[in-house]
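Posting for a labmate who doesn't have an account.
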Amino acid sequence: MSKYVIALKDPGCKNVAKVGGKAANLHLLTAAGYNVPSGFCITTNAYRDFVQADEILSGYFTELAPLTAEEVDAIALLSHKICEHLYARKIPESIVADILRKLNKHGVVDAYAVRSSSDSEDSLDASFAGIHETYLNVTGEENLLTAVRDCWLSLFSERAIAYRINKGFRHSSVAIAVVVQKLVVAEASGVMFTADPVNNDRDTVCIDANFGLGESIVSGTANADHYRVTRGKICDKRITVKHIAANIDADGGIDYEKVALDKQNLQVLPDYEILQLAALGQSIRKTFASEQDIEWCWCAGEYYIVQSRPITTLFPVWQFADNRPRILFSYAHWQMMTRPISPLGCSLWRLMFPIGKKQLTAESSYMAPLAGRLYIDGTEVLYFKIFRKLLPKIIGLLDVTMGRAVAVACNRPRFLRTTRSGIAIIMRWAKVVIPIIWRAGFCILWINSAEYFTRAAGYREKVATALNNDLAAAIDDAGAIKLIQESAGRFEAIKLAHFITFGVLSEKCIRYLFRKWSNSEVDFTVLTKAVPNDISGEMGLAFGNLAEMVRDNVDPLADLEPSIVAVVIRKLIVQDGKFVAAMNEFLGKYGMRCSGEVDVACPRWRENAVIFAAPICNHIRCNPKNQQQARFRESEHNAGEYMAQLVECVGQTRGGWVKARIAKRLLEIYRNTFGLREYPKYLMMTLFDIYRKKLLAIGNKLAKNRIIGDDKDVFWLSLDELYDLLKTGRDNQLLNRIAERKTEYSNFGRMQPPRVITESGEIVTAVQEGGSESTGCLFGTAVSAGVATGRARIVFDPSLVQIERGDILIAPYTDPGWTPLFMSASALVTEIGGLMTHGTVVAREYGIPAVTCVDNATTKICDGQIIRVDGNRGCVEIID
């Protein structure tokens, strides 16, 4: 058997390390009986022997290792040097002999397609599509050997080097094989995706087609017809004017020729051929058990498959037991954190979700983990007409764009045709909803609104104390995990959800009654400032007090940097008892918070107090001394006066004394509950902090016994897996599984999670209201009034960024961990959010304009650009 050459039909050709991803896939297609042009593969052994014992190349690998993808010039220089060096090397005679021997068997006079096949390409997480070279219509021995060398050299093109850097591949570890196939002189060719690569829909096959060879489409040099087939029917056809087609050149290679005028507007494939090709694609998808990107050609009435690789850019889809239409919406957007959550974090949230569980410690089937994000299956609720109207509006309070997309999805004919109702569905959701409504009604009618906070705080303290006591009394670590599962399964925070409910209801009542009684609109912007019992507002004030204590210990003339402030903080922790007491009090109340706090794997503030250095530095540089407290007191006074004016206004109408009492009651409820909107989450984060402490303690023991690498590795397991590990002992595959999940998590981080998806993975979108970007503005949702102009600061981690006074904060999302930055920003722009999300409420509190749901704001706006944020119209204008 040849060391360097193997036939595509040979069973050994399924070894990816030997023949590369492209050749291995072609072998599988050939073995499955698909029409694949015959040929052979020059294995990675040939490439490795070509570059073996090359000290100069090893030196280049050393130079490449530290480079980032952004170092374009350095990559270009090394790419040129490596290719120049390798081109000068002679292909060993033993390799040449093997190639020519195989070529003579196939027919040296034939024309061939010569394609690169890297051992790292065409995998589920790295396609390398278009990265390595392909040569068509290669004839003759010398030309073929030159094409093989050029394929090897394409491993070191600038784009190949950059791609490997982005994907984390070591340059010295990859190798490349070369596929040689007889060329099909195609009458038509193209590309087929077995799922829509744009909207993620697995039920749609997308086909691009042009006359001649497929190179015209792959290279992007010619127009192509575009066909879409959904569930066996052509749902869309776009017939383009095809001016150019790629054909074989008599002298070798390909030639781009003009398409005859009478063919330019013709449909490349007739409808019956489109359906046949789509069915072929579906069959290939089943063969590989994954969605495929397929290159095909048509000749003499037959389809040939010349390449098939996984589509690596699709967002995952949840596998349901039936084929009914479903609507899933993103809990990640709802919780204001779109980066992936750890496996244990996902496990925890699925335990807490109160629907779709057979027992207390089971994970909900109504919450699906996809690419490290959680999606709620809201299909059953949307079966009911009233909720098809109501639920999108409720969701819209937290993310306007998501609310609109849910409205679009649940009113589609296909979804409406499959709606069903039944007592079982009603009871599943009623068990959760009715207690909330009951508590809300009871409190609104009978409880003094000033007692709301006392009740909420008392419940939080009771639950936290009970959990701490239970964990301390646990007989072993497995028992502690079971207690955590039971605690999460009870979802204690839902017992406080009625505060949010009747806060929203009181607002609706106030709007309605004041319009009816006095024909006036209530300015809720005034009422929502400096509200009592606002955990985020109080945290902001407490943080400001810490910052002021640090300010008193820094040189007012110094050019402040976070490193300087960090030194001062460390000094105060050692020397200043008053500062230590203030810091301990702050961490005692808010130390369980952090950026990305909904993931239990994220370190909490209490674990590293110096993390406040950057935000404290921002506060000192951007805010006058004690301004924050003064602003709060002023807002509190204004809100009190405004409430009195409103009550007096309705009191002067007919039946005013009754109206005044009702208005006063509703206004007090609104003020006293608005601050409690985040208290359920505050309770959750309190419990998360307790869970985290215990999980890290368990992780520390496992790491000491060398069962896991370090204490934080526990977050790469589900709670069930951790429980089983503690009960049964060592798991031989555990370290590999953790390593795989870390790699998977890194890949998930590059995915953009959609707001709303269906059972087929289709990403549902809705038209954004407000305007068009063609006007020079980016449009979103106006959530805090005002207009501000300033320098854009793109922020992904609030603990690492310095902003100047007047800067405009641009972020994918915000959560309570971002609160310190709001003190310095002049406006806020986020990619997700709604009227009731944390960032917008805090923006209104500080009186700065805010616009949310600005799609891709962090990429469309450049750091340092001068922009204008109009919080009245919901637009962001890029000025410079």
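Reply:
Got it, the structure tokens are right above this. The chain has a mean pLDDT of 87.
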